[in-house]
Amino acid sequence: xxxxxxxxxxxxxxxxxxxRPRVGGELRELGIIDNGGILVGEGRIAKVGVREEIERAIxxxxxxxxxxxxxxxxxxxxxxxxxxxxxxxxDDFALRAGGASYGQIAASGGGIRSTAGKTRAASEEELFExxxxxxxxxxxSGTTTVEAKSGYGLTLEDxxxxxxxxxxxxxxxxxxxxxxxxxxxxxxxxxxxxSVVNEMLPRVASERLAEYCDVFSEPSVFPIExxxxxxxxxxxxxxxxxxxxxxxxxxxxxxxxxxxxAATADHLEHTEPGVFAALREAGVQPVLLPASVxxxxxxxxADARAMIEAGLAVVLATDFNPxxxxxxxxPMVLSIACTQMKMHPSEAISAVTVNASWSLxxxxxxxxxxxxxxxxxxxxxxxxxxELAYFFGVEHAxxxxxxGKLVFQRC
Length: 411
Ligand code: NIG
Ligand code: FE
Description:
Blueprint: E1 3-13, E2 32-41, E3 44-50, H1 51-57, E4 63-66, E5 71-74, E6 76-78, H2 90-97, H3 102-107, H4 111-121, H5 124-140, E7 143-149, H6 156-168, E8 172-178, H7 189-206, E9 212-217, H8 224-236, E10 240-245, H9 253-259, E11 264-267, H10 276-281, E12 285-288, H11 290-295, H12 304-309, E13 315-316, H13 330-340, H14 345-351, H15 354-359, E14 377-380, H16 387-390, E15 397-402, E16 405-409
Parallel strand pairs: 1-4, 1-5, 6-7, 7-8, 8-9, 9-10, 10-11, 11-12, 12-13
Antiparallel strand pairs: 1-2, 2-3, 5-14, 14-15, 15-16
Helix pairs in contact: 5-6, 7-8
Bound molecules: N-(iminomethyl)-L-glutamic acid (NIG) and fe (iii) ion (FE).
């Protein structure tokens, strides 16, 4: 068996620890090994330890890479994206710069519906090509696991087209047919909800095109009762549940996530802290998306500190999408989380690795550097992990490995 070793890393940030998402003070425990390395065989992690330990395990045919005093981390896990879409929304962006709001733009035919028009018009191949460009962006910033939602098709055929592209890209697939009411159903939301429940969900489930179902639960889009109907139907079909909750208004989305014991409740910018205990009891992980708050020019970030105090297993993700978060960069999210949400860099790192992987049902495989796990890891060009959040506007990833194979190397 030909093995690969990386040695000479200033810090190996292992995130080793209990086999579950981390809460409270655990979020700061990164299991750092100074002057360490890693040994990989058959795409899995064979050993993580100090330099001498790894060097002792090296065999004559082991390929040895010098870490050059850089830091080694698990590949980032991005647990909330809308990374498959046609066109972009640079026009909306310019309008917002001139003072228009996300809601105003959506109401006047921009927003999600305009991306849906372009996505419907694109062939599966065109969509795959556009999304492949963004996949490269993820990899270049050190992300090796990506969740992606449908939601710009809004017809059975176009949603399935998106989900097939998501599968080809190797992402964790989430069905988001209830992302917006499409133009042809304007004023007939109830009928669209019935089509999601009776036509789309059964086909998506029977063709195994999604692991999760999500709903954009918002009074002006899909109110709570619709979200409940759709998510219950998804659960009956064996899908896991995720919810866009309380993003633009506090409307009980997080409470619904707790009621349904969803895997995650995402956004939560307007959630009352009174709901946090119910989320904890129900085992729901909050997925916080500060890049969308930043992009929309709002100052209302989710209350990460109160969530951590309440014992919630917080996740951070990009929300990469053409409207409210046009960034695939986890380092950018780390920066915003530390500066605006007052998360400690260590907490933010746990939120984009170990906690994110558990929120996607991948906790046994990804998110930490521990023996037996898939060898997804990244050498970043820093000597202290806190620099990942501190130097912003810079991509630090120097070499990215997925399943033990080099998939990106900075020249
Ligand atoms: O998470 N809120 C709904 N979905 C996205 C925005 C998608 C879009 O604007 O295209 C979000 O922010
Ligand atoms: Fe989103």
